């Protein structure tokens, strides 16, 4: 599994309905993309759920490098034409788990990024990340949870999708950025391997 995300931070007065309309028109185009596990079309609006910015920030979980590269070589061109070329972050998959609400539509996503501390034993850190992924997925209202690692920046990212705000579901107050999920393309979701990925 490979994770990928780019962030388009938009002006404070930007009409986010433009992004919502774009996803409504074009989101289905990745519903059958070869090699894609899932793409969560994520937005956050300034002032909503504590967001300081307007942002479009889709998050991808890929089953194959070939599928990811095919998208980067061609599927990304429409976004580049409309918004310019984004910086695309990539992480190596650490863990994936379906949630307690796996059959339900995702309304919100929580993304938490954290540095890997200097001096930490990497195997123990990765084991802890996999356990946290399973804990998140086991909470009421969780659709799925994933963890991935960027070994260039030594940063761990957790992404979890929810049917409603995690705090409303009895989960602890979310630690991270909260996004609205506009659409979920998931052609290869059933083939994303559950559990730890090493």
What does this protein look like?
The chain has an 8-stranded antiparallel barrel. It has 4 helices and 11 strands, in the order ββαβββααββαββββ. With 198 residues, the chain is an alpha+beta fold. The protein has one domain (2-189): Alpha-Beta Plaits. The chain has helices at residues 17-26, 65-75, 77-83, 122-137, and strands spanning 2-6, 8-10, 36-44, 54-56, 59-62, 88-98, 108-115, 142-150, 155-162, 177-185, 195-196. Strand 8 (142-150) and strand 9 (155-162) form a beta hairpin. The model has no long low-confidence stretch (mean pLDDT 95).
Q: What is the secondary structure topology, with strand pairs?
A:
Layout: E1 2-6, E2 8-10, H1 17-26, E3 36-44, E4 54-56, E5 59-62, H2 65-75, H3 77-83, E6 88-98, E7 108-115, H4 122-137, E8 142-150, E9 155-162, E10 177-185, E11 195-196
Antiparallel strand pairs: 1-5, 1-6, 2-4, 3-4, 3-5, 3-10, 6-8, 6-11, 7-9, 7-10, 8-9
């Amino acid at each position: 599994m490979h994770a990928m995300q780019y962030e388009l931070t938009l002006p404070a007065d930007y009409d986010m309905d433009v992004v919502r309309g774009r996803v409504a028109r074009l989101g289905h185009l990745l519903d059958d993309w070869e090699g894609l596990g899932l793409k969560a079309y994520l937005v956050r609006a300034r002032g909503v759920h504590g967001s300081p910015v307007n942002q479009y920030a889709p998050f991808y979980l890929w089953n194959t490098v070939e599928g990811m590269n095919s998208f980067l070589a061609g599927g990304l061109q429409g976004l580049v034409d409309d918004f310019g070329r984004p910086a695309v972050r990539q992480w190596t998959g650490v863990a994936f788990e379906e949630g307690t609400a796996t059959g339900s539509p995702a309304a919100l996503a929580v993304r938490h990024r954290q540095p890997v501390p200097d001096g930490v034993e990497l195997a123990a850190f990765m084991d802890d990340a996999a356990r946290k992924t399973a804990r998140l997925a086991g909470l009421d209202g969780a659709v799925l949870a994933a963890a991935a690692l960027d070994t260039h920046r030594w940063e761990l990212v957790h992404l979890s999708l929810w049917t409603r705000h995690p705090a409303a579901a009895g989960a602890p107050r979310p630690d991270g950025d909260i996004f609205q999920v506009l659409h979920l393309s998931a052609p290869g979701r059933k083939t994303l391997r559950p559990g730890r990925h090493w």
